[in-house]
């Protein structure tokens, strides 16, 4: 008996239909792109910040990009758990992200403003996915989104405080 040369995919039966899982995974792919773009921007600013607040911002940005590195993994793994491939290239992230790259090296407070905008963009993207997760009774995704929104809102607030 000849073996079938095609691998059979294991069926995903988690109580959420394929179309709903796809819609949620597509939203999470946009969030992943935002998270990764913000990670890269924060790391760039960590390397290149200068001025009287150098040490404070350098250390703060390091804390932020380390957290973001963990977050991108959580979001990507949720996409995989829903049964879809996670985007993982700069080209995909550039197409999916609502956060634009920053050209050159801005001054320190401009970096802070740009990071506030990036954190707020992540909140808006996460919030836009929430109704899909809620409708599908996808509590793990809803929990992930809630955690991401909470962290990004708090980080944006703390960064905004530096601008006052």
Automatic annotation (TrEMBL):
Residues 26-164 form the Ferritin/DPS domain. One of its GO terms (molecular function) is ferric iron binding. CDD domains: DPS (cd01043). InterPro entries: DPS_DNA-bd, DPS_DNA-bd_CS, Ferritin-like, Ferritin-like_SF, Ferritin_DPS_dom. Belongs to the Dps family. This is DNA starvation/stationary phase protection protein. It comes from Solimonas fluminis. The lineage of its organism: Bacteria, Pseudomonadati, Pseudomonadota, Gammaproteobacteria, Nevskiales.
